[in-house]
Write a structure and sequence with these properties.
By secondary structure, this protein is an all-beta fold. The chain has a single domain, classed as Sandwich (Immunoglobulin-like), CATH 2.60.40.3880. Helix content is about 0%, strand content about 45%. The chain is built from no helices and twelve strands. The strands form three sheets. A five-stranded antiparallel β-sheet has the order 4-3-6-10-8, with no helix packed on it. β1 (about 5) and β2 form a beta hairpin. Mean pLDDT is about 85; it is low at about 1-10.
Length: about 170
Amino acid sequence: MGIRHKGLSSNKSTLDASSFDNSAPTQSRFTALAYRIAGSSTWIDLGLTCPVVSRPAGSDIEFRVSYLATAAHLRSFVLSGGGCGGGTPVLSSAPSTAAHWHTDALDNTVANQAIFSLPASAPQGAYSFHLVVHSRAFNPDDANGFATDWNYDPIYIWHNTTLPVAVVNT
């Protein structure tokens, strides 16, 4: 004998309208990289495979980093620059070009570019750009339960992409 609840028998199947997405934002990527001498209007495309910048000694340079941040349920992303200890490319375009938090359920893709500056005083060497994209997915089995505190927002699924670039003085 089946269990009855609200007129339904446990022997009968019902359709569950729930949909679960646990996918990582792995389609997120860098799409182009270019540089120029600061103040110049001409960008020099570098490509994405082992890019090398020939920087005239004593010159400030700028990088134009193009990217795609996408997920089935995008939560946020951050684009940043890194260095090997002697300096770091610094964002010089608007903050919104290098970070985003979703605004509604359909806000799942951002294709944009950001400008980073590297001063002449930064040594030649290895630099990098990092794109970290977060999904809105959460773990319902987390010991902390579902977060209602606005200041507590754990990340369970993300994708991290790094684009290394060498800067050589000429």
